[in-house]
Amino acid sequence: MSDLNRIARPAPGATSRSTSRATSRPTPRAVRALAAAGLIAACASLPAQGQTQALPDSVSPALAQETRAIAGDLLNQLGGKLKAALSTDGPIAAVSVCKEVAPAIAKDLSARHGAQVTRVGTRVRNPAMGVPNAWQKAALADFDARMAQGEKAADLEHWSVADGANGKPELRYAKAIAVQPMCLSCHGGKDDIPAPLAEKIRLEYPDDQATGYSVGKLRGAVVVTRPLPAQ
Ligand code: HEC
Fold it and tell me: Tens of pLDDT along the chain (231 residues)?
């Protein structure tokens, strides 16, 4: 079954969650102020709530909610840690949150839920972790196409059911991650990233491609893959 004919779309008229409240480029100081003011929800926005999704037939609404909650948990935990690190220690120290804490949270959630939880990027900083596979690329391309039609990244989800490597059906869920103002100090353009931070990123990630983003753009996806329970 092709991934692309299993695309769930938000119901027409579903409330959209704006991701582009601020479009100005924050200085590191502004990033800290934003963090301190508690305006930063997470390393991305939360899964859309209350939307009617056209789920694949074999995915019950309860299973869908549970799967969304796993992705939401990753975003919440990571967002909290990133926010705290940015406000107390500044963006250079916060690099370790994205580097060490993000995979640790993903690993813990994967073990707890018997799922694979990960983050992938449209352009990637860490080639060992964040490169999308074929179906994840298709999900990102779907998000891009829907954003071109005016949908907001923060609202986008992609569901599919396909046979996994073990030949058994698995549920695949991707939740779009939109760029927020706080992301720019590490993923924005040259003017957004302070020189010492750019240097640290260059040293740790010589192949970094994850810069040049602006607010509201698609940064990547949180991905949850899990066995489909027997009906
Ligand atoms: C303090 C710097 C910093 C900030 C702020 C930051 N990131 Fe990152 N981000 C990184 C680093 C470093 C990595 C590479 C992590 C690794 O080694 O796996 C990364 C990786 C990622 C990845 C995984 C794909 C890849 O490129 O490897 C995504 C998705 C991502 N960031 C999204 C975001 C979003 C969305 C925000 C804002 C809400 C954000 N980041 C804010 C530093 C940052």
Answer: 444 434 444 444 333 333 333 334 445 554 444 444 333 433 334 444 334 447 999 999 999 999 999 999 999 999 999 999 999 999 999 998 889 999 999 999 999 999 999 999 999 999 998 999 999 999 999 999 999 999 999 889 999 999 999 999 999 999 999 999 999 999 999 999 999 999 999 999 999 999 999 999 999 999 999 999 876
Task: Using the mean position of ligand 1's atoms as its centre, give its distance from the Cα of residue 172 in Å.
Answer: 22
Residue recorded with tokens 């750019």? 198
Residue 228 DSSP label:
P
Residues near ligand 1 with C-beta < 6 Å? 43-44, 82, 91, 94-95, 98-99, 102, 119, 121, 124-126, 129-130, 177, 179-180, 182-183, 185-187, 210, 219-220
Which of 178, 171, 170, 103 has its CA nearest to residue 140?
Answer: 178
How many domains are contained in the chain?
1
Q: Whose CA is nearest to atom 6 of ligand 1?
A: 183
pTM of this structure: 0.80
Instruction: Kindly state whether residue 156 falls inside one of the protein's structural domains.
Output: yes
Domain holding 205, by residue range, is 28-45+53-227
